Amino acid sequence: MKLFSKAHIEHQKKVHEDCPSYGETSLIFAPMVSELIESNEVQDLLDYGAGKGKLASQLQLSRLINIQIYDPAFDSHAAKPKPAEMVVCLDVLDNVETDKVDAVLDDLSALTKRIGFFSINTTTGDETADAQQSESKTIRPVEWWLPKIMERFELHYFSRINLGFVVVVKNKTPQQ
């Protein structure tokens, strides 16, 4: 199962290098992620597509938990992750190559032992850019994403946000 092309990873590396704030909008979700960790007594978390890995430093937790950071665009975070109780995937899926979305969702399903929290952009806020999207972006409507997600997970929470939506999902067959 191929999750990305070499060209895509090179593009992601360049975007991260050229734009220091790229990937940091996911930090607005740190309070919600913290609340999910606390209320579900999560012991280990995987930040999938973590970019520079800043989310971990923004979590407000009452105890220490194990946090894995995975992002193939960063050599320091590129090792294949292990399954975790909770998987967070923030502003990543809409940046996956369209022909790799199903493989990445399958990977997320295999890595999520219990809970997933995903944010997905359905627009860039620029209709012209949306219409001219490249294969390195998957800007699609909610109606395109939800069936793909629900094929692999139980949907427990859905909310529209400014540029897309967030979901809290549970693995259909929880792993030990």
**Largest beta sheet: strand ordering:** 2-1-3-4-6-5
Helix count, DSSP H or I runs of 4 or more residues: 6
Total strand count, please?
6
Alpha-beta classification: alpha/beta
Find the CATH topology.
Rossmann fold
Query: Which CATH top level class fits?
Result: Alpha Beta
How far is the first residue's CA from the last residue's CA?
23 Å
CATH superfamily: Vaccinia Virus protein VP39
Low-confidence stretches: 127-135
Helix content: 25-40%
Percent of residues in beta strands: 25-35%
The CATH architecture can be given as: 3-Layer(aba) Sandwich
Average residue pLDDT:
89
Care to give the gist of this entry?
The protein has 176 residues and is α/β, with parallel strands linked by helices. Helix content is 31%, strand content 25%.
List the helices and strands and how they pair.
Layout: H1 6-18, H2 30-39, E1 44-48, H3 55-58, E2 66-70, E3 84-90, H4 101-111, E4 112-121, H5 127-131, H6 142-152, E5 153-161, E6 164-171
